[in-house]
Fold each of these.
Amino acid sequence: MHMLIKALTKVASKYAPSRGLSFGVVHIFKTLQLMDRDGHVGREQLCKELGLGEGSIKTLVKHLKMNNLVKTSNRGTRMTERGQAIFSELIASMPAEKSLPRCSVALGRFNHAVLIKELGYAVKSGIEQRDAAIKVGGIGATTLLYTDNKFIMPTAGRSQDSLRKDADIRSLLLDGLNPEQGDIIIVGSSDTDRRTAELAAKNAALFTIVNHEKHY
């Protein structure tokens, strides 16, 4: 996983003195995710899905090509074998996601939940995940640890199930994400749109994986 994170971070880095890049690891992940789903993607689709301008998308694709993660043709841009291998490994750590309504653990008008496998021990207070969500335009993120069949806030006691009074949301998370002992669920929230909530959740999830790798 270390080499995978290093590869994505390199794509999101400047190659020469210039203005700061307007995209990060989360935009790279989402780009690969779209290619995995659709096969080929065009710049217009990427602009819409990522909320970035045409110039930023052009630079993003250029960086992906420089790192041999994608290739372009008349049909659009698609992943190379290297890009597919990297994406497959990363998605194994983030295998499920789901939109959520406003509730006790999802405070925005739009909310998106992402499952992270087996990294419950890597979360501290959840503040870091919240800040990562805010960095890409979200209003915050809620981190839930799944242990002993309970959804627990990082700062709460192990016996305090945050969803004990919210059976509907509990069922949505169990059925939609299928968490197992030691997994994490991060819910990114936005009052703007679903895209921002999704990027907020995924940026917080990727931050968790990256931060774990730095201290592993």
Note: The domain at 94-214 is CATH 3.30.1360.30 (Gyrase A; domain 2).
Amino acid sequence: MSENIAYTKIQIIVRTLLFGESTPTPETIRDHIQTYRAIHPISDLDAEQLARELETFFDVFMDVGSVLKDHSFEPWLDSARLDIDPYYWSRYKSLLIKQNFNNQVLGSLDEVTDRTLGLLQNPLKVGSWDRRGMVVGHVQSGKTANYTALACKAADAGYKLIIVIAGTHNSLRNQTQQRIDQGFVGRDSSNIAASSSERFIGVGKIDPRRRPVTFTTATKDFNKALAEAVGVSLKALKEPAVLVIKKNSSTLKNLLAWLEAHNASGSRKLVDIPMLLIDDEADNASINIKWGKDEVARINGQIRQLLNIFDQSCYVGYTATPFANIFIDPNTDDEMFNADLFPENFIVSLDPPTNYFGPTKVFIDEPKHFVRYIEDNEDLLPLKHKIDFFPTQLPESLLEAIRTFVLVRATRISRGEAASHNSMLINASRFTGVQERLRNEVQVYMGSLKDAIRVKGGLLFSSSRHDSDIADLFSTWSTEFKNGPEEWEDIYPHLHEAAAPINTVSVNSGSAGKLNYFEHEKSGLNVIAVGGFSLSRGLTLEGLSVSYFLRNSSMYDTLLQMGRWFGYRIGYEDLCRIWMPEEAAGWYAHIAEAVEELRTDLRNMERVGATPREFGLKVRSHPDSLLVTARNRMGSGKRLAVRIGLSNKFVETTTLRSDGAILERNREAVRLLVTDLEALGHGILGAEQDGGSLLMRSVPASAVMLFLSNFSNDPASLLSESGPIVNYIQERAAAELSHWDVLFVGVNDAPNARSRTNLLGRELICQQRTVGDRYSDNPRSLPIGNKQRVAGRGIEKTGLTDSQILEAKQEFDRTKHGGGKSLIARAVNYPDRIFRKKRDRPLLIIHILELTANLKPKDGGTSEIASWTDVIAWGISFPETNLDETLTEYIVNKTWIEEFLSDQDSDDDEEDDV
């Protein structure tokens, strides 16, 4: 695409002309472009490229989400609007328009932040009051823009102090301060204490008349000396004050001491101004009390103190993980609701715009396009390593990722985006020392690429293709981008311009490398960022296109927050790639489905007027809360009783016992099931053919319970423990769960003779599965694959009528956030939960598997293939109950905790108190 000025001029003119229209047609866009091409000539190719850009821009929309609230609160905002001057919001809205927010998204942001503001207390209300709420967003989806808008509106309404707690690291706090400076303060706070004249930025360039007071800067967290230098109490300020502080015990201690010494008054020694506290990443440190981690509990207590020192306060926690430990930490339900930071007054769920690049799109809808599995790291960059590990060579997968990043930047240059930010993330170790050594290795390889491109890149490709680095770049392009819109001849001339400015920096508490995108607004910052925890929470990597993620965690909050690649990738989404182990990709897919399931629950609960308390119980009883609960209690040395709801849930055996006798016992359980079904009038020979599978309808519950009782479960597959499930079925066997559909899963084609089984008394072609990597660490168990899933997507629609399946899909289509045109054409990938909701009968799924494992000797010898035939696994799709739901009690034992939680990430790059 051309980089000429004419292109940019037409883009600005047409966008301005059409901005008042909600969704201009493609024809309207092209007509306007054609009109102005006469004044500003551009080629036909550029004209079509611009038309597609504008189509994407105007095709984005955003729903307003859903809300749960307490029933006793009296609305106040509508009646107060007459006296509110929307000064701060108006100029922030103008800034967002300049930043290309279209009418649809801006209108939804306006509405949802109005809704949140209305759930806070009226700041002009006399007397003591406090409100506690939570906003649930998506990782990298624009939460900062949301709470900046909320801060602006709160200031307009009369809140005098706004405190933003912005994470546990300086890098994140500084970045958040810069964004608050841009969107609310309007001045570069890093110059506030300097003798030089102040510099207006962001909203300050739009309207600089009013100036919020800030007690923190873009380079300095809160300290008492800086606050005392302002020389005036908070109550005497004519404009609102804002503080952006790190979630750090010393910082909170200093702030509390200053408030008590200089601003508290009266007999109760309280600060008498309305205060809004915004807690970003509210599930991190604010509430999550781990065994033996007293510092986290201390921060929790200090946030409570901070709220209690104000006579009038509101707390809003922002999080992307509905499984946040707000709901799960306390031992009892009563303790959960009595916790000071529980969002008892309101919960707002944000829906992202349709152009959001999130976990569902990446790991469920289009994983083959975006995700690459890391399989070559163990010898050079092992997943598990000690603090003194010294990498001396990079795995080929990482070299491939680095080359891909260079090619992405060259492609973006060819698309006219030479001045855009470009970032690559490498998150492969929790130790800062290892991160530094890894950064050095990446720097050396990047230097080699730069040298080759500088020397050979100016030649014709026919002359340079024999250079090994140039040949490797071409090979990578052929693998990743050959089917894209650009040809190699479009990319090759831009390689030197792409590679030359790329810097490699480490991002952790001990590094000097900084990610200051604001200082490179005109030319763009091009960086490979190597880090650990500092890259895992809140920190935004602008223009992130390539990620190399080699971490070990099954925790929802940790994994989602490590996903810095989520967000918005307008104009280059098709170029984004993520390298990670297959197991991590499986966890992301699982989490994406689980989180979306909870969001659906929240939308449904809004319709019936449920409260935050009821949603808290819903989260607490979700099967996936097992992980979070066990993690918080893993140091207690006790067995844990966790109560789970099975209504409208799917459970399956994700791990099996490898012992030969137990495998045979489970085969016998299937034989007995077939015999039992025969006696009940359901002969296997009369089973209904469903593709390569066999289906029996309306089977009595007694047969299912007998099979489950006979099956020997692996302790690592906790949810499929037979005892609790049989008890749940028995309670409902006379009513909802009296009759079942039973599916014996098979396939149509036989890869080899061993795939055929007569275990059922009727031939079935077995599914083939691989054994997961965890088998190498624990050969007593057989994890089925690395993705924590046995059944294929769509299996839960088995037994439904065509009309039920169509109705489920239509309902999903109506509620699914779609409408934007994907850069990659695809069919809708319908989640199984929509079919489960339509089930009249539960479904028992029996898998007869052929398993294989590639055993890699630790001494580096030749790999061996191990195999198992007629291996039994099962799953159950439970329909939604119409009875009073009783929770099923599972006991989290030591074996399960060791399997899933013994090697969780505990980052070494923690910052000292400052």
Note: The radius of gyration is 29 Å.
Amino acid sequence: MKLKIVETFTSIQGESTHAGKLCFFIRLSGCNLNCSYCDTKYARNPDLGTDISILKLVSLAKKEGVPIVEITGGEPLLQHQVSILCEQLQEAGFIVMVETNGSQPIDMLPDGVIRIVDCKCPSSGESDKMLISNFDKLKPYDEVKFVISDEKDFNFAMDKMNKYQITKKTRNILFAPVFGKITPADLAKLMIKNKSPSRLQLQIHKYIWHPETKGV
């Protein structure tokens, strides 16, 4: 059984509640959204990449020898075999994280997998594509991320948190400034002013390396 893969690499986890830790990344091909600020457009085409077996991917993760594996994209949940990859990585003892754009049902993934659900804000151009039922499927260990460009996005995120009572399902709520659109300081000011229960998330890999560097 194979998955279409754009790249695999080990790097510093730049986002999530595990930011700063070593992580092995598996980036899948193909995405059904086209966000305005996308920084991995090279992964959007489902026909690009290499077919790699699940057995080989687990072997690569073991060879790298780091405890966390993140499966990302593109949109990884478009390839349904990803659930089998998650199961086999869990059986091998890894902490498994899957970052999804929120448009696909997250309950296809096994229990224990950390689902990072990116709820798209208006500036993405894709906020109407979210699968709202995913909020009911969140586990306490899951994470919800809002990528924020401006105050309109911030207010949208606060409204979604309140309307769907996300804080009652998980405390891992991330507010991430769009790199080059809103400064971390300005987003922090909005969070402080509005007493947001979220966590400020910076894409630290973009501060370590050039923002357009691949494989980091």
Note: The domain at 2-208 is CATH 3.20.20.70 (TIM Barrel).
